[in-house]
Specification:
The chain is an all-alpha fold. It has one domain. Helices cover 69% and strands 0% of the residues. The chain has four helices and no strands. It starts with a helix and ends in an 8-residue tail after the last helix.
């Protein structure tokens, strides 16, 4: 029950952000139709089917990203070893005191 509530919150928040972004993108795309008209062949700059297909595809990709499994809670041992190496190797070896 708790994991379903957490998943709901993640999907709800993620899709809200995605829909705001899709809306902003659609507004920007419709405002730039004059500039894009010379680049398009056999498609109207305000083709509703193209706008709808792109918006649906973006929403579907955002939903998939929201529902994707998250990283494990504890990092694996090789990950810890890599971070230790990075911390050690960042020290400057040519500065001696």
């Amino acid at each position: 029950m708790a994991s379903q509530a957490g998943l709901y919150l993640i999907v709800h928040h993620g899709m809200r952000l995605a829909l705001v972004g899709i809306g902003a993108g659609l507004l920007a795309a419709t405002s730039l139709t004059r500039l894009m008209a010379s680049l398009l062949y056999d498609v109207k700059p305000t083709d509703a089917a193209t706008f709808a297909a792109v918006a649906f595809g973006m929403a579907l990709a955002a939903l998939a990203a929201c529902c994707a499994p998250r990283a494990p809670r504890r990092p694996c041992v090789p990950c810890r070893q890599v971070t230790r190496r990075v911390k050690v190797s960042t020290r400057s070896s040519h500065h001696r005191e």
